[in-house]
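Internal tracking record. Fields below are filled automatically when a chain is submitted to the structure queue. Please do not edit lines marked as system-generated. If the sequence contains nonstandard residues, flag them in the REMARKS field before resubmitting.
Queue: standard
Priority: normal
Entity type: single polypeptide chain
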Amino acid sequence: MKKDIHPKEYRTVVFKDMSNDYAFLTKSTVNTKDTIQWEDGNEYPLVKLEISNTSHPFFTGKMKLVDTAGRVDKFRNKYARHFDSKK
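SYSTEM-GENERATED OUTPUT FOLLOWS
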């Protein structure tokens, strides 16, 4: 193995899934500006996650249909003439 390729400054960090407020404490080298007070009363750096194992459909078994900015409506409007001609 190559020497001195791994970081040495590991610190305790909180990772928080913002979609369901699930948080866990672990060691990491990630840099962050945010902090959070943990259950033990200490303040730790905070890394905000959009998705984790508690919110990902693969792990939860639940699929979410997210229609951001009306994607289905945009599709229907764009191809409306094709749908109308088949009636």
